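Consider one such protein record:
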Amino acid sequence: MTMSTTKSLLVELFVEELPPKALKKLGESFAGSLAASLRAQGLAGDHAAVTPYATPRRLAAHISAVQAQAADRTVTHKLMPVGVALDAQGQPTPALLKKLAAVGADASVVPHLERKPDGKAESLFWTTSLRGATLAAGLQVALDAALAALPIPKLMSYQLEDGWTSVNFVRPAHGLVALHGADTEGTPILLGFAGAGEAIIPGDEVADTIAYVAHTTVVALSMHWDQAIHDTQFHDAQSARIASMEAWARAQADPYLEGRILHTLRVLARLVGKPHARGTFIAARITHAQLAAAVCATRSTVTRLVGTMRQNETLLWVRDNDNEVGYCLPHTFMASQDRRA
């Protein structure tokens, strides 16, 4: 397994308020069980680093060096003694055919079976190649195992929307997000915003999968790390970038989708916001698809929710002094966030 074929995996489970005293154990159990199952399926290596996270409303795990698909593997099945498997004419017995069906084979593999000593007798063995598990399928298996293994002293029961099915869990679950690297062949993920005077430092593992998109005229200065560390302006630019990343992380931490949308727009307002009679005008165009990528939701869901927020005036659509139209965060929302900060 090489680093070029693996990416980090982040899994986050959003739930209602978890027992505070059990947070540490729940987080460690969730991450540990996920990693153990992925290793058992050949999707993660023995040396993959596992980092657990737990807050009152989420359990998360970051696992390094996870493959999109496990390597194919060879499996040898011990079938049964030759005397039981074959009749006097060397033809397969019903017992052998039944055993072959149990391991996913049929009579066509009989000529390829191997005879090997097995104690005092001789037995038949069948060797086959199994396709490696995909991460999509393997992660579901790992999640089922991780949730079943959580050290929960008392489970709660919940009825699903169909009115019949009941599930047991520590608290009601509201959503699950799994991010494997930044795959340009899948759904694009908005990793954050960058403003003027910020230093962007790409990571080695995903440097070839990150795209920078500018919506205004940008003058960018490329600088080698050996030169940058001796530039006094670089340290200020790096501090500005860290502040943006912290604000972005706080936006993603909101357990409710409406909150994540508002806080994501607030990050953008911090970078390109302008005073407006009704609040803070965001002087940059952001599409519903980009918002959906930022908050881990579908574009249709974001479109519906933004429409509701505009009706309730928790989010405004206004025209600024330059006759540009765009989103505006109301004074009440901005004031409430300032008080929290």
Remarks:
- Confidence is low (pLDDT under 50) at residues 204-208.
